[in-house]
Amino acid sequence: MASGHPRVAIVDDDTSVRRALARLLNASSFDAMTFESGQAFLDSLSAGTPDFVVLDLHMPGMNGLDVMAALTRAGLALPVIMITGHASLEAQARCEAAGAIAYLSKPLDQTTFLRAAAEAAGASSRTASHRPG
């Protein structure tokens, strides 16, 4: 997008979560796009790569970790904020080991979420030269 704002993909099977996060991010100088499944997001990558991704951990079909693995296999080093309504220390450890820069529990605290988004956008700008697209 030509706006110069960081582009973020929100991947969550819950429509209300996608809409709320998109509104929050768009109001905070991000360009948000939403996807209802991991596969829909992965299919969109041929049209362009976002600067970072907000991924729901628990989704039907591909879960957040499956999407992260697919990104890695494709050679895409995108910063990921993992969100979940079912937080656990084990899941957090798995997500962090897979490379997620943040692991946040729903309902999301707006300040914490926007801080993580700013961190992801910064991480993206540091790795942009290493990504195709």
Task: Classify the secondary structure makeup into a structural class.
Answer: alpha/beta
Tell me the series of helices and strands, N- to C-terminal: EHEHEHEHEH
Task: Count every beta strand, where a strand is a DSSP E run of 2 or more residues.
Answer: 5
Classify the helix fraction into a percent range.
Answer: 40-55%
Order the strands across the largest sheet as they lie in space.
Answer: 2-1-3-4-5
Strand content: 15-25%
* Average residue-wise pLDDT: 92
Low-confidence parts, pLDDT < 50 over ≥5 residues?
129-133
Largest sheet: 5 strands, parallel
CATH class: Alpha Beta
What's the CATH topology label?
Rossmann fold
Radius of gyration: 13 Å
The CATH superfamily is known as Response regulator
User: How many distinct helices?
Assistant: 5
Distance between the termini: 13 Å
Second-tier CATH architecture: 3-Layer(aba) Sandwich
Shape: globular
**How many domain modules?**
1
